[in-house]
Amino acid sequence: MTSEASDMLDIAVGVLVDVQGRLLIAQRRPDTPGAGYWEFPGGKREEGEALFDCLNRELAEEIGVTDLRGEPLIRFAHDRGPRPVRLHVWRIDGWTGEPGGREGQIVRWVTRDALDDVQLLPATDVILAALALPRRYLITPRLTEADRNDWFDALEQALQRGARLLRLRDPDLSDARYARLAESVIERAHRHGAAVLLDRDADMVKALGADGLHWRATRIAATRRRPLARGLWFAASAHDTAELDAAIAAGADFATISPVAVTTTHPKSGPLGWPGFESRREDRALPVYALGGLEIADEADALAHNAQGIAAIRGLWPGAADA
Length: 323
What we know:
CATH topology of the largest domain: TIM Barrel
CATH class of the largest domain: Alpha Beta
Number of domains: 2
Number of strands: 15
Distance between the termini: 41 Å
């Protein structure tokens, strides 16, 4: 679903996160649409109202908190409820006041795992995916035997610097050699609390204890269904709206769109630029990383154009940008 729906309601949503990492959820009252379901608090924007002003007003009225401090998380549209809505979601890490149900609703703090047992409003899964994903998605460069030690040294540096999500990409390796490399990468990554996505199949993910799969658009188009269970990440590469829609139809948790800028690996591919990225991403209901010729300095621009963050090889691999 895109941003073209004319009757769409704009809703500001706040995900309050406390110092223990718990999330605040509220149960919809019996006299409201979706009664009994749990949600992150927020409400409909009034005509002419800025969205963050709307969030401040709604949270003051609903749960009694003001002076919100946080950052945009994701903007997306969906029609899974009674009418189409566009959700503008912020992660809120600071506020004034003690949250409580000011309109008679029940509110409570929960851990992320506890949400599996809660009946949540439709599309909350998209918000939770964006909340769980980091701002940077590291894609590993090819490994050669000549630079094996340097490659693993760079991997360790990246993990020590905070890389928490990586895609092991090496299409030149046979499945057997790729699996041996993946086993070593997964062991190192998990030691640092980082997740590893593989490029191959669900059986290899299960056998090696990886954290998910990342497939190219052509493979997703051929399969047309999610290849592994929920609870593991399933990511997709996309270059246009059709590929992004195919990823959503296949049940992807997130995607990448490329190339945003000129890349050294595909120098002749015309870059999308930020307007091109945003026009393809639109308000689709999944987190999307910007990929292609980007580095850490581009992260702010990515967030300003509704990206989950940046994905990169050279821009995030230690030493590669200067190579």
